[in-house]
């Protein structure tokens, strides 16, 4: 088999890897197909690595989009690095799944997918990926319309000059709300409950949630509680408040679920990870 026949695309889904993109491409050389933005894992890595630093506290997960400073810098640097080295820069995953029982909500969700893929192709990405097969045609249409060439290696992004400070710029607008806390708890509990039943990803609120999104949720909860951040309503998030909300959400989810669910067991495991005390290297370890 000729050298270079088999190639791999490396997910840049940790903050240390963002500082080593050139080195990763060099080490793979003939075996590199490019680099890929790993959206949720990357956000998890940033929170995890800087969780003890109050300057790295982020607002509600919904406010941490691909256009906030540290994520925008990460994307631009990845594209520039890949194209300078002659390999492809892949976009991130669209986590939406079709909403079959609400056409209006489904149309809005698909519009969000189109907007996200349009942002990627205009930034210079060469391709992308999605969480559900039904989204493939949307992504393909956006890229085929806006990228008539096989790739965008010619888009060198010489206008981009990213520094270490840009990659670590946590100036993210937004607030920490009780609703955001409950959503993080729901995602964490939903994923853990599925995992305890042997399921690796679960649809929650028409988004495909996996270990990465559960990790973002528990890491945010841990960090918020660790530093005793106040919510938008002025209530300090401490151990007692976090556990109160955790058990309220677990009880609510259990009532809605069928027999044999494991939400209370999920809460038992999850509660050790959201109070700002114990922090496992990975949620499922």
Automatic annotation (TrEMBL):
Q: Which reaction does it catalyse?
A: glyoxylate + acetyl-CoA + H2O = (S)-malate + CoA + H(+)
Record-level Gene Ontology MF annotations: malate synthase activity
Domain Malate synthase TIM barrel, residue spans: 1-169
Per its UniProt record, what SUPFAM superfamilies does this chain match?
Malate synthase G (SSF51645)
Is Transferase a UniProt keyword of this protein? yes
Q: In which pathway does it act?
A: Carbohydrate metabolism; glyoxylate cycle; (S)-malate from isocitrate: step 2/2
User: Where this protein primarily resides, as one coarse class?
Assistant: other
Q: Which residues form the Malate synthase C-terminal domain?
A: 175-284
Q: Sorted alphabetically, which keywords does the UniProt record give?
A: Glyoxylate bypass, Peroxisome, Transferase, Tricarboxylic acid cycle
- The answer to whether keyword Transferase applies is yes
Its EC top class is transferase
Q: Where found, per UniProt?
A: Peroxisome
Which EC numbers does the record give? 2.3.3.9
Q: Enumerate the InterPro entries for this protein.
A: Malate_synth_C_sf, Malate_synth_sf, Malate_synthA, Malate_synthase_CS, Malate_synthase_TIM, MS_C, MS_N_TIM-barrel_dom
One matching Pfam family is: MS_C
Gene Ontology biological-process annotations? glyoxylate cycle; tricarboxylic acid cycle
GO CC terms, sorted: peroxisomal matrix
Which family is it part of?
A: Belongs to the malate synthase family.
Q: Please identify the protein, giving its name as recorded.
A: Malate synthase
């Amino acid at each position: 088999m000729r050298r270079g026949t088999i190639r791999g695309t490396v997910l840049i889904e940790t903050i240390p890897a963002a500082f080593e993109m050139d080195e990763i491409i060099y080490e793979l050389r003939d075996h590199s197909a490019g680099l890929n933005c790993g959206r949720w894992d990357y956000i998890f890595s940033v929170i995890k690595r800087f969780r003890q630093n109050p300057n790295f506290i982020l607002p509600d997960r919904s406010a941490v989009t691909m256009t906030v400073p540290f994520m925008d810098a990460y994307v631009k640097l990845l594209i520039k690095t890949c194209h300078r080295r002659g390999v492809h820069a892949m976009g991130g995953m669209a986590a939406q799944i079709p909403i079959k029982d609400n056409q209006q909500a489904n149309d809005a969700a698909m519009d969000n997918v189109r907007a996200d893929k349009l942002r990627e192709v205009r930034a210079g990405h060469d391709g992308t990926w999605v969480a559900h097969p039904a989204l493939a045609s949307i992504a393909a249409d956006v890229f085929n319309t806006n990228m008539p060439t096989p790739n965008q290696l010619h888009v060198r992004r010489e206008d981009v000059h990213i520094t270490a400070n840009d990659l670590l710029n946590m100036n993210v607008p937004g607030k920490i709300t009780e609703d955001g806390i409950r959503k993080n708890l729901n995602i964490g509990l939903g994923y853990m409950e599925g995992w305890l039943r042997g399921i690796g990803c679960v649809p929650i609120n028409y988004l495909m949630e996996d270990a990465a999104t559960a990790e973002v949720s528990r890491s945010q909860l841990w960090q918020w509680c660790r530093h005793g951040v106040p919510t938008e309503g002025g209530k300090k998030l401490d151990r007692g408040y976090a556990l109160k909300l955790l058990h309220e959400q677990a009880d609510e989810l259990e009532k809605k679920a069928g027999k044999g669910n494991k939400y209370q067991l999920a809460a038992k495991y999850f509660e050790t990870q959201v109070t700002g005390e114990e922090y496992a290297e990975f949620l499922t370890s």
